[in-house]
Amino acid sequence: MVHANRTIGAELGGVAVESSGVGLRGQLARNALLPLRLFLGATFLYAGIDKLTDPAFLATSGAGSLGEMLRQVHDVAALPQLVDLAQKSPVGFGYAIAAGELAVGLGTLVGLLGRLAALGGALIALTLWLTVSWATTPYYYGNDLAYLMAWVPLVLAGTPRYSLDAALANRRKRHGTQLFG
To answer: What are 142-151's contacts with CB under 8 Å, separation 24+?
Structure first.
């Protein structure tokens, strides 16, 4: 089949497809998720830092505050219960979101617990879609749904190349299951 020839040498989720795939096509296929991983990791890392360094965001009320944004989206959110939960402590919730974005961004960039980091990113994007950007019309103008879908390939494949996960897997392969010593 013609399509099968295009995937020779592709490494999907750490499993080689058909052969080692030397050549440009094989190399491109093995690194296909790297640009997505770099973009999402850098974006979430930046978002976390931006939230932590913006005193207006980490406030209960006022222009640009999380508290004000939560009040604005409450009545149009798909899950207003999530907004209610965040409104109990907007500052604490702001710190939690920022910390989550930092952890997801760092984990994705360095490739440590890549699937878990990607799942965290997907859950953050899902939460924001169901609360903040739910009322965006048409839906494709909102970016949270697109971020959610962008995380899915990394949830499925993890970070099998150029990552601490890959380095640890190679070490385990060389030394058995013993990680240290």
So the answer is: 147/40, 147/121, 148/122, 150/36, 150/39, 150/40, 151/40, 151/118, 151/119, 151/121, 151/122, 151/125
